Amino acid sequence: xxxxxxxxxxxxxxxxxxxxxxxxxxxxxxxxxxxxxxxxxxxxxxxxxxxxxxxxxxxxxxxxxxxxxxxxxxxxxxxxxxxxxxxxxxxxxxxxxxxxxxxxxxxxxxxxxxxxxxxxxxxxxxxxxxxxxxxxxxxxxxxxxxxxxxxxxxxxxxxxxxxxxxxxxxxxxxxxxxxxxxxxxxxxxxxxxxxxxxxxxxxxxxxxxxxxxxxxxxxxxxxxxxxxxxxxxxxxxxxxxxxxxxxxxxxxxxxxxxxxxxxxxxxxxxxxxxxxxxxxxxxxxxxxxxxxxxxxxxxxxxxxxxxxxxxxxxxxxxxxxxxxxxxxxxxxxxxxxxxxxxxxxxxxxxxxxxxxxxxxxxxxxxxxxxxxxxxxxxxxx
Length: 381
Fold this sequence. Notes:
Layout: E1 3-5, E2 16-24, E3 27-34, H1 41-57, H2 67-78, H3 84-87, H4 90-97, H5 110-121, H6 128-149, H7 154-157, H8 178-185, H9 191-203, H10 207-211, E4 218-219, E5 224-227, E6 230-233, E7 242-245, E8 254-257, H11 260-275, H12 297-311, H13 320-331, H14 336-343, H15 348-355, H16 362-380
Antiparallel strand pairs: 1-2, 2-3, 4-5, 5-8, 6-7
Helix pairs in contact: 9-11, 9-13, 14-15
């Protein structure tokens, strides 16, 4: 395209400009670009060349799309490929990435990210882990934009490192030993609650998995408990305060053998329900009085707090009963493969990363083997 010279130069003497037409992904209608003014013809030619290169680069990119528009399309796409429980986490994360929403996707640069990251570091009420969850969410939006709309976020994406705190100390994992759990459960006088906490402790269920259990999932003849769903707290249009969803991963769908202590308690609980004409295989095992709804998380916390105060044992989270089960298995000599299967971990690495400190040191095992060999050799001599 030709370069023109204006009859009305700028105050500093710039008078050359280029004028060209182009088409973007937003419309089939040609657009006209009139450039700013340059001091020389050569500068105007270079400016036109750079513009043409950028147009070629973004020819398949909706250059006027904002992150808000991209986010809306991302959410619509996610509805068909992620769990309901995952979708429910998005609104809370959105308020932390809202400052990006008015920015055009093609204008996104490292300064936008660094300003956001600085702001996020200043939020002391958000854990480091959750900050990185939000960052992961933001990256998934960028990946969606790259995959579907051909945006090139690579220059910024590769510099978007995780939030770190060099002074952070890893929290010590809390759990009950068998002695502590027996002390905790000794004050429980309601068979339903006794069964609930025993199920958490002996089976290592996640809270949602325990709340989602139905009587048809428990076979007391074979002493098998089947994890098939989880109950997640959520306000629904039908008035319910929960929703049933698939377990966390495919490996979380599992059959767990029931120990004799728990089997005895569950049998007593079931017999009590049968006696009162309240037993139904479709009812929740740990539900309200008529079994139609699962126990609320609020009631679980309230009952746990009661037992802690009455028994005098330390306070642990509901999820820590799962850690307690892992500790019980590991200290009883269970190998990592068995523990992973029992807890429903998707990979053995997950078990090792979480509970590696509980397993005997591999180096100590090697030394024991060498010592045993030397002792046998000395005996022969």
